[in-house]
Amino acid sequence: MNRREHREIVRRDRAANRGYLKSRVVLRGLRRAQLWRSRRGPLGRLGYLVSASVYKLVAEWMLGVEIPPSTRVGAGLRLRHGIGIVVNPASVIGEGVMIRQGVTIGNRRRDDDCPRIGDRVEIGAGAVIVGDIEIGAGARIGPGAVVVVDVPPGATVFLGGTEVRPPREPDRTAGADD
C-alpha cells in the first residue's frame, strides 16, 4: 500500500464514520498499522511494531474492537457502537460494510476457513458469521443471526440464520396502469 492509496482509504473511512469519534479512532489506528505492515525493511518492522502495539492497546483493550491489522478490509468500513467486535485475521471485508456491536466474524475449524464479506453488507448487532462462506454484496445480516451458509447478493438473513430471503424483485406492475 502506498501513501496515496492509504490517504484515499483513510479519507473514505473518515467520511463513512462522520460523527462517530470512536470508530474514527479505531480505523485510523488500523489503517496506520496496515500501512506500516506493508513496508519492508527494519524501519517498516519497527514502525509496525510501534503502531500495531498502540492500536492493540487502544482498539482492543480500551475500546473492545478486535480487527487485526493483517485482516483485508475495504475502504469505508463503518463501525457502529463498536464494543465487542471480533474479526479473524483471515476474514475478508469488502468496501462500505457496516458492522454493529457484538459481531463475530471468524473461522469454524481451520485457521483459514473464514468468511468473505462483499461490498455494502450491513451486519446487525450480535450477529455471528463463521466458516468458509461468502456474503454477497448488499446483503443484510439481521441482529443475532448465526450465519454458516453462503448468502446471495442483496439477500437478508434473519435471527438464527434459519431463513434467508432472496432480494426483492422490483415491482414491474407499478405504473403500468398510468
TrEMBL record:
Q: Name one Pfam family in it.
A: Hexapep
Q: What class of enzyme is it?
A: transferase
Its recorded reaction(s) are: L-serine + acetyl-CoA = O-acetyl-L-serine + CoA
Q: Which UniProt keywords apply?
A: Acyltransferase, Repeat, Transferase
Give the record's GO CC terms.
Answer: cytoplasm
- Single Gene Ontology BP term? cysteine biosynthetic process from serine
Q: What is its EC number?
A: 2.3.1.30
Does the entry feature the keyword Acyltransferase, yes or no?
yes
Q: Name one GO molecular function term.
A: serine O-acetyltransferase activity
Report the sequence similarity comment from the record.
Belongs to the transferase hexapeptide repeat family.
Its recorded name reads: Serine acetyltransferase
Which species is this record about? Schumannella soli
- What high-level taxonomic lineage is stated for the organism? Bacteria, Bacillati, Actinomycetota, Actinomycetes, Micrococcales
